[in-house]
Amino acid sequence: MAFPKAELHLHIEGTLEPELAFALAARNGVTLPYADTEALREAYRFDDLQSFLDLYYALMAVLRTADDFTELADAYLARAAAQGVRHAEIFFDPQAHTVRGVPIGTVVEGLGAALDRAEERYGISTRLIMCFLRDESAESALDTLRAAGPYLDRITGVGLDSAEVGHPPAKFREVYEEAARLGLRRVAHAGEEGPAEYIREALDVLGVERIDHGLRCVEDPELVERLARERVPLTLCPLSNVRLRTIDTLKDHPLREMLAAGLMATVNSDDPSYFGGYVGDNFDAVRDTLSLTPDQLRTLARNSFLASFLDDDEPRRER
Ligand code: ADE
Ligand code: ZN
């Protein structure tokens, strides 16, 4: 569906399509362990979050220069525009690049070159959110935040992603405190594979303004009541949940119940190249499978703008 919407949960590295991966591999002299794009697509069968992350990080080997990141972001923006995206808040994983010897400046400047002309070329306003890898140490996250210092004029906020279970939000208390001091907005993945308690911790310890995924809040009625009362946005990613087997089938997605409970749900694509669809495809899938009404679809689209950081002044959530 191509009605206007904002996308708030999108990992730019997760938009790397097999065709671009092979083109960049050839350009950069990287050998991929797949015969062709078909064989690579065949590998997109995941048992859980970790099995996806293993491939996601491995394929990043093809991203080396600022131009590579510009091309990656341009390809996403063109696809997003075709599906009605008017505003995109884009995650990137600096540590996944610095560990390979690609400096954070190369990543930010490369992405920034595409984002700078996104309004004019695609009619999309953008924000950039740097994510810390939660399966790395808190010290590494703090080092990454310091390394981002010269580029903070291009970075709106910080997030937390990668393997969730065993890496609770509280591990990153200090780095989020520092991010807040620097005036950065704060979000975190929580309740994707991890328990509802991680959602509470992300709110109470990290002071986040949005929860990425938050799916498992439905296991905790008291938390659902709180999230609804405080209007905490949840950036849901339905096709991602099916592909990573967080739910068995899309029919099992609790989106209708979440809307009925007054949760501020939004629909997003997460890693669209890997999970079978961009954000419009996610909207189509939930509309068809969960029989959403036009009113519910309008609410989801409206929520996406309300939950965005378009108004950059002050955190809007009151607690
Ligand atoms: N990094 C990229 N996609 C992710 C997801 N769905 N969960 C956690 N980390 C991620
Ligand atoms: Zn994600």
TrEMBL record:
Details of cofactor binding: Binds 1 zinc ion per subunit.
Gene3D superfamilies: Metal-dependent hydrolases (3.20.20.140)
Binding locations of Zn(2+): H9, H11, H189, D270
Cofactor: Zn(2+)
Pfam families: A_deaminase
Taxonomy of the source species: Bacteria, Bacillati, Actinomycetota, Actinomycetes, Kitasatosporales
GO molecular function terms attached to this record: adenine deaminase activity; zinc ion binding
Active site: E192 (proton donor)
This protein's record includes keyword Metal-binding: yes
Residues at which substrate binds: D271
The enzyme's E.C. designation: 3.5.4.2
Site-annotated residues for Important for catalytic activity: H213
Protein name (Swiss-Prot/TrEMBL): Adenine deaminase
NCBIfam families in UniProt: aden_deam, PRK09358.1-6
